[in-house]
Amino acid sequence: MLRGLYAAGSGMIAQQRRQEMLSNNLSNINTPGHKGDQSSLRAFPNMLIQAMGTDHPRSHGTNRVGELSTGVYMQEQTPNFRQGDMQETDNTTDVALLQGLVPTDEETGEDAMLVYETLNNDGDLRYTRNGNFTVDGQGFLTSSQGHYILGIDGEPINVQNDQIRVDSNGEIFSTVDEELLGQINVAVVTDPTQLVKEGEGFLRYEGENDVFTAVDNEDVTYQLQQGFIERSNVDASQTVTEMMTALRAFEANQKVLQAYDQSMERAVNDIGRIG
């Protein structure tokens, strides 16, 4: 009976964690460049049940009864790096990154991911798909959180003001005198599964493969589109449906747990009174 309690309890925990993940996806549906998470549920190894103290063993000299499931757990939570839809904003500092042909990792089978390079407040290198840029008080091109956007030279880009034009290769020109102000660097992450979310749309790379630039790279094709941003790739209707499914699964396990609790209460109180 206790095994049934553990199985129902593990199912509730797994669905609760899945519900938290889906709620986070839904809360970021309007976050530009956000990549929704997806979960993998897996069952614990089954236990082989054998009868003890019987006089008539079954075939092969064993008293095998069968297998017993020991519950389920959420094995991992991985981002879905599928590109989101493009949304027009007409803001000169908004730039959407359209991913074209990219190399595929031979070991993981995952397509590479193109990202912008940024410097966070601690001066550490981070990556993002959020092209909702702005210009700070010193004239530098930054993310909406104030992190510097890096150019192909690895340095922050000073554009002076928002009177700029960005071509498809990421070169930035002043609309006043057509002066070349810099070029946005687009980085290639060959193993995107090693990107770790840090919040606010920023990613930290913990892989062993080198991150290289896509600029002037014959093996990579991409395009930047000014006045657009990449929307979150979270599907609202599908996410709500999955949340309802997770809630029903949680409630079903909860009812099983309550049934076991009532059975144990009767075993403790009623059987003891009858004896």
From TrEMBL:
Location of the Flagellar basal-body/hook protein C-terminal domain: 225-269
Domain spans labelled Flagellar basal body rod protein N-terminal: 5-35
Coiled-coil regions listed in the entry: none
Protein name: Flagellar biosynthesis protein FlgC
Species name: Salipaludibacillus keqinensis
PANTHER family referenced in this protein's UniProt entry, alphabetically: FLAGELLAR BASAL-BODY ROD PROTEIN FLGG, FLAGELLAR PROTEIN
NCBIfam families the UniProt entry points to: FlgEFG_subfam (TIGR03506)
Similarity section: Belongs to the flagella basal body rod proteins family.
Any Pfam family: Flg_bb_rod
Superkingdom of source: Bacteria
GO CC, alphabetical: bacterial-type flagellum basal body
One Gene Ontology biological process: bacterial-type flagellum-dependent swarming motility
Transmembrane residue ranges: none
Principal place of residence: other
Keywords: Bacterial flagellum, Cell projection, Cilium, Flagellum
